[in-house]
Amino acid sequence: MTLIQWFIFFLIIQIVHYLGTWKLYEKAGRKSWEAAIPVYNAIVLMKIIDRPTWWTVLLFIPIVNLMMFPVIWVETLRAFGKKSTTDTILGVVTLGFYLYYINYTQDVTHIPNKNAIPKENTVSSLLFALVVATLVHTYFMQPYTIPTSSLEKSLLVGDFLFVSKFHYGARTPMTTVAAPMVHDTIPVLGTKSYSKFPQLPYFRFPGMQQIERNDIVVFNWPADTVYQFFDRSGRRADKPIDKKSNYVKRCVGIPGDNLSIKDGVVMINNVPLQLHDRQKLQYFYTVKLKNDFMVDILNENKLNEYQPFYTIPTSIWNKPEIKNYLTSGINSAKLEEVYKDSTLTTVSGYINNTDYEKLGMDVSRRIANVNLTEDLAQKLKSDSRVESIELLIHTDEGKRIFPHTKPWTQDNMGPIYIPEAGKTVELNSETLPFYKRIITDYEHNDLKVTGNEIRINGQIATNYTFKQNYYWMMGDNRHNSEDSRYWGFVPADHIVGKPVFIWMSLDQNIPWSKAIDKIRWERLFTTVGGDGQPVSYFKYFLLALLGWYGYSFFKKRKAKTS
Q1: Which of 71, 76, 67 is nearest to 99 (CA)?
Q2: Is the peptide bond before 187 cis (omega within 30 degrees of 0)?
Q3: Which residues contact residue 218 at a Cβ distance below 8 angstroms, ignoring those fewer than 6 apart?
Q4: Which of 119, 139, 174 is the last residue of a domain?
Q5: In this structure, are 15 and 37 located in the same domain?
Q6: Residue 426 exposed, middle or buried by CB count within 10 Å (0-12, 13-18, 19+)
Q7: Residue 369's pLDDT is what?
Q8: pLDDT by residue (tens digit) across 484-540?
Q9: Residues spanned by the domain of 462
């Protein structure tokens, strides 16, 4: 919405308010015209309903104001003696228009100082508690659950976090009409939780710090057109920025950096990125054993992420029509020969279950690509059962890697300039693929390309100046992370917040029947950032809680005896 549209919308709200309450203002001893003056009418109304003046501010905070309106409707009804359950339900269900009925047809009396009667505040107190929870959730601290292993070793699947909104500055909601305390989908119902109209422009409050390299960041996934997670129907959704799916990754490139990746190592301005001391990178390594010990190796080291190799009878593999079928990638199979003997051929790649069974294949117990940290790879090298361990470097990924025009892989790509607000880059057929989405989707320009001619908003353009900062996000689980390598830059207006605290952690591989073992006790009440090994503050929390209960018990006991 434009500023003029917002102004007209604001005036309509004021007119609706005036027409529905001006007689009630008079009955409260005020002037009817006071109901028509924007902002001032809200201040006067707070006096009429015996609520603090600062509540007026809450009426102008996006999302929070949606929760405040029902509170104000109920409070206004109660200020004029309409305090029954029926009155409360009608006030909320009719979106406040029940006040019109009261205003024009009922002879009501204003009750000053109504809040001196405690039992009359129950409903409005519950509503206001929801307002406070929404305020905290939207502007200060938001819960988040780790769904994938892309930051494994730092953040585990099943970690429950608190994400700070104020570290990088709280972003005001752009989607003004939405269900509180949920993201893009209403739980159980599975329906959309928001309306795309109206939309507010992007605004962020000043933060405590800037995003730095190696910060773990929660952000809205820029490329999100997912209608609903796990929905395979092919439906697309053009979502508002703040309703795009939440992702969590580590920032490895900040505005102004030149980033490249060389054999899996992130380079910033041609210097290897310095890792955080809690950061443990993972890559797939090809682990080859002397005998059939693969299952033992995996179980002993609790390794769950691996890509099996397969064996196929050599007599079958050597048939030209079968080899062509399995290696072409045209069908639901693409295999590559690793080595063979007269009996069995070992292959890597993927194949569907039907062909796997039909061809008499099996999983190799001597070789696999296993996801390992460098420390664990070194440990396995010293294992007498291991013949060799080699870091897997991907060599061919087609056009999957951003900007989808170069023969890059997830392990070797770049250099890429990460845009900085106010900086200008040259535009030509070589550079445009890097910044096309920025120009059109993120900074809302009209882009047309005819041959070698580039036009932005109708004007021939040979360069472009960025309007906001951008970041490059990656997972520590380098070979098992969907990140900026695949969809590019993260705009500043997509930043949600900074994970700061793990309050609960559940092992997804252990059933609830073993609840004590399922909880990762050593991760409870640990900080996400900081230096050195994470320390659990859970025992200190329990001691403080016991101390408080003990203090309260003896205080009450002493009061009774005296």
Answers
A1: 76
A2: no
A3: 144, 163, 246, 247, 248, 495, 496, 497, 498, 499
A4: 119
A5: yes
A6: exposed
A7: 94
A8: 999 999 999 999 999 999 999 999 889 999 989 999 999 999 999 887 788 888 989
A9: 422-467
pLDDT band at residue 67 using 50, 70 and 90 as cut-offs = confident
Q: pTM for the full model?
A: 0.85
Do 328 and 402 lie in a common domain?
Answer: yes
Most confident listed range (142-151, 211-220, 226-235): 211-220
The span from the CA of 112 to the CA of 47, in Å, is 9
| pLDDT tier at 143, thresholds 50, 70, 90 | very high
Let me know whether 427 and 357 are in one domain: no
Confidence check: pLDDT of 479 > 50: yes
Residue in 486, 524, 530 with CA at minimum distance from that of residue 156: 524
Q: What is the pLDDT, as a whole number, of residue 264?
A: 94
- The reply to whether 261 and 376 lie within a common domain is yes
pLDDT category at 231 given cuts 50, 70, 90 is: very low
Co-location of 362 and 442 in the same domain: no
* Residue 325: count of CB within 10 angstroms of its CB: 15
Dig out the tokens for 180 from the structure. 């509180």
Dihedral-angle region of residue 248 (phi above 0 means left; psi in -120 to 50 means alpha; beta otherwise): beta
Cβ–Cβ < 8 Å for 279, 250: yes
Residues labelled catalytic: 150, 249
| Cβ-contact 213, 254 below 8 angstroms | yes
Three-class secondary structure of residue 285 per DSSP: strand
Q: Domain check: are 412 and 268 in the same one?
A: yes
Residue 358 tokens read as 């039909």
Distances (CA, A) of 531 to 160, 277, 527, 528: 20, 7, 10, 10
β-pair partners for 65: none
In a domain, 202, yes or no: no
Q: Which of 395, 424, 432, 388 is nearest to 410 (CA)?
A: 395
Residue 306 shares a structural domain with residue 380: yes
114 pLDDT higher than 70: no
Q: Please name the residue that has the structure tokens 């294949």.
A: 361
Rounded Cα–Cα distance for residues 286 and 275 (Å):
24
Whether residue 28 is contained in a domain is answered as yes
297 in Cβ contact with 287 (< 8 Å)? yes
